[in-house]
Amino acid sequence: MSITDDGDYGAKQVGFLEIIWGEGFLSPGGIEELDLMLTGLNISNKDVLDIGCGCGGAAFHLTRNYNVNTVTGIDVEPLVIKRATELAHKYRLTDQTNFEVVDPGPLAFEENQFDVVFSKDAFLHIPDKEGLAVEVARVIRPGGLLVASDWMRSNDEPLSDEMMEYIAAEGMDMHMCSIGRYRDAIALAGFVDIELKDRNKWYSDLAKREVAAMSRSPLREKIVNLIGENEAKNTIEIWKKMIGVLESGEHRPGHIRARMPDAKVKIE
């Protein structure tokens, strides 16, 4: 959003998104969407890497409700890692969660270090999807799981004017690709049992409800008190631009699940 005041996620941005999506969350859907992503999976006693962990909302939910062993959350934004660490202390989850600021690029972990690689709407900030898939495959253990959601597109053709206008209004690095490109990248990296679920209609409907809520009391007052009247109006306009590309079908949020075979093949 245009209210970023330091990097992609400044203090106002984080505070605003937590008002909309809940404490610790910087993307839509809350715990209900997390539970849907994980439906039917057993990740009990697993070591989890959360890529683009934000303020830790997903990590805390996995720790509290899925009996995971550990969650290591990484993000390139120091402010959100600071917030996640604060919340870990607040929730008394510091023994099971760890949050680290990382540089963009290859993951700074050993091969076969994690049972599960998780991500919630963060891969869109990484341009090289194929390189990302290879890195995820490298750090995941044989038989391990990739569980993610991301903001994607209907195809990999040049962006429409409407989409370019929306991304410019967001003021953030957004490298959305097609669901098909993700499928190909994940398969090429060695994953099997690949599942992709389109969530366009769900978020199109939710985004409209979010705009309606932001436009009236009591949510509107909370937002205005945090970011001011002008920014509140501007943010609603950005949301409406997003709804436009959701309704056109170009913007297609979705879920990604895949498994690394028990006999893992190293991809050079």
CATH architecture: 3-Layer(aba) Sandwich
| Overall outline | globular
Summarize the biggest pleated sheet: 7 strands, mixed
Strand content: 15-25%
Gyration radius, in Å:
18 Å
Total separate domains: 1
Helical proportion, percent range: 40-55%
At the fourth CATH level, what is the homologous superfamily?
A: Vaccinia Virus protein VP39
* Helix and strand composition category: alpha/beta
Question: Your description of this structure?
Answer:
The protein is of the alpha/beta class and 268 residues long. The protein has a single domain (11-259), classed as Rossmann fold, CATH 3.40.50. Helix content is 44%, strand content 20%. It has helices at residues 11-21, 30-37, 57-65, 78-91, 129-139, 161-170, 179-188, 200-214, 219-227, 229-248; strands at 47-51, 70-75, 97-101, 114-120, 140-153, 192-198, 251-259. A seven-stranded mixed sheet has the order 3-2-1-4-5-7-6, sandwiched between helices. Strand 1 (47-51), helix 3 (57-65) and strand 2 form a beta-alpha-beta unit. Helix 1 runs antiparallel to helix 9 (219-227) and helix 8 runs antiparallel to helix 10 (229-248). The longest helix is centred in the C-terminal third of the chain and has 20 residues, at 229-248. It is globular. Residues 1-7 have low confidence and may be disordered.
Strand and helix map with partners:
Blueprint lengths: L10 H11 L8 H8 L9 E5 L5 H9 L4 E6 L2 H14 L5 E5 L12 E7 L8 H11 E14 L7 H10 L8 H10 L3 E7 L1 H15 L4 H9 L1 H20 L2 E9 L9
Parallel strand pairs: 1-2, 1-4, 2-3, 4-5
Antiparallel strand pairs: 5-7, 6-7
Helix pairs in contact: 1-9, 5-7, 6-10, 8-10, 9-10
